[in-house]
Amino acid sequence: MSRSVALATAVLVVLASGSAGALSHDLDLSRMVLDTGGSPWNGVDPYNALFNNADQNNPIPNQGFFKSLATELGLAFAPKFLAPAETLGHLGFDIGIEWSLTGINPDEQYWAGPCGGQSSTTGSCRVGSYIEDDAKPKPILTTGQVHIRKGLPFSFELGGTATYLLYTEMAAVGIELKWAFNEGFKYIPDLAVRGSGTRVFGSKGLDLTLGGFDISLSKGFGVGDTVSLTPYAGYNFLYMRAASYVLDATPGVSPGTVQLSRSVLPPDYNGTLADWQTAWDGGIDDTEKAAHLSALRRREDRMYFSFNAESIIAHRQFFGLRFKAHILELVAEVVFAEVPDANLDFGWQFSTKLGLDF
Hints:
Elements lengths: L1 H18 L13 E2 L11 H5 L9 E2 L1 H15 L15 E11 L5 H4 L27 E13 L3 E10 L5 E12 L7 E12 L4 E13 L2 E3 L3 E18 L2 E2 L24 H10 L3 H16 L2 E2 L4 E16 L2 E12 L4 E14 L1
Antiparallel strand pairs: 1-2, 3-4, 3-15, 4-5, 5-6, 6-7, 7-8, 8-10, 9-10, 10-13, 11-12, 13-14, 14-15
């Protein structure tokens, strides 16, 4: 078993190091706010166009975008099945390397942003997307996973997972417990239930936890003495809780370095903004400069916000086929998901597994 654990650790290190130099798809939820007109903020002049409304003392989170984006990320990290309903037996052990492709909707504004994925540094829109590289997201999220399962007495099985989302710093760990209340009969399919929990970490803004249960049905067919084929299918109820950490709506903007604006000039200053800029560059009185910086700091202090927690329920159907030769196993699986509460009527995932079952 120690060799298997070492192998799993090595695989995770390889997966993480392979993308460590190109973490281009980490989220930037600080941009996901509304302007004073209630539209997705395009990133222009945050101190005036976004927050200069007297009735708007704080950034307004774009809650709908947050819920939809968190839903699609949650489906990528959701527990995979990649095994028939039968358990391993109380002496059995299984370790697998798994690879999953999850389809998303990259053209939707909750991914692409108000600019449609086309960033601009000089035009009227500067929020290219809600990922850090300001590019249009890929249509598929790719995850690599190490999955370890251990058989227990009385047809129980305990498992654990470690998952990494490529091109990000996001990863997840999960635990699962399965019970096959009907298995081993010649003419009756195996039937099992499983409960699971997953915790996602590594995001700068997203707090995501998954939990749920599934029921699966399978029946194996022998091909020779050591080869078997086992089709399986089932249903998964998935609960996702998405929240956020405290975010800064104007990241990288420090008081005193932001472009001077009329709204933060000292109240007793009667000149124009251009006059003030000239005076500032030429070295104005320290008292006036301190008043200006104080106003900037007051405005910057209310640039922080967070999203309300969202409870999201998904219904997933899965279908798969396992090929096993002695202790080597190959598994392929497709999952279809429906999430009506998040305006996501359909989602899909394709997963494969290479494992050892002994």
